[in-house]
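Q: How would the structure tokens look for this protein?
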Amino acid sequence: MMRQNQQQLQSLAPMPLAVRIAGEGYPILCLHGHPGSGKSMSVFTQHLSQRYKTLAPDLRGYGQSRPMGEFDLVDHLTDLEALLDQQGISKCLVLGWSLGGIFAIELALRFPERISGLILVATAARPWGSHPPISWQDNLFTGIASVLNKLKPGWQWNMDTFGKRSLYRYLIQQHTAAAYQHLADEAWPAYLQTSRAADRALNRAIRGGYNRLADVATLHCPALVLAGTEDRHITAPSSLETAKCLSDCQSHCYPEVAHLFPWEIPDQVLSDIDCWLTAHPEATKFDR
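A: Here is the predicted structure in token form.
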């Protein structure tokens, strides 16, 4: 997917990205998935910005980063390189969720000297899914559940009546009020703000395939891979396959959670990230 684009396409000029910056200290670049926005990374940034400087951009075609025309996924790398340069960041740790994790891998492969560590959440270097076909009932119940949840986030009746029968059942396993609050505050707005150009760019890339397993074996920065056993979008086996190929990697696979597991079990996820950061001080160490 990304490699094919790199070989065949000329990157566009970098696009200035809307970005949420918080905290002080070593920089951590937080990359969202599709659909998504920098705001949807708040489960990570609100916690990590207490000790680090977090940067959560809206990628091209998402959130407030509105594209002027068509683009390809490789252009996100051009934008992110320009963002790091603009912020005067020579080296950073990258945390990527879903498609954002693929961009994290690509940044580390393209600029190994600039990436000090990787935290890969619900993603893979050779991703595959197990999502069943989507029916009209799935779309109908998802629409109803989303509208009702936006009006009254975490309403138990809506979760039981529509949420568990909607496409949310493939995104989360634990239908809690807290998870549905994230869906209302972050997922729904991100979905509405995702451009058609971003949809088309992703669809073109998916048709091209993606496999960077052999390449990630060349990465030497420390990495943390997090997966959920019930993830139907990027399966846990594909995430753990990536973990095995990385030379310096720790992994966690959480039971009974799906693709949005950081919203299902945030305390556990953040605790494991904290432990990994403590065990790998080199991942957040400024060069002298």
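Strands lie at 19-22, 27-31, 53-57, 92-97, 115-121, 223-228, 249-254.

The radius of gyration is 18 Å.

Upvote if useful.
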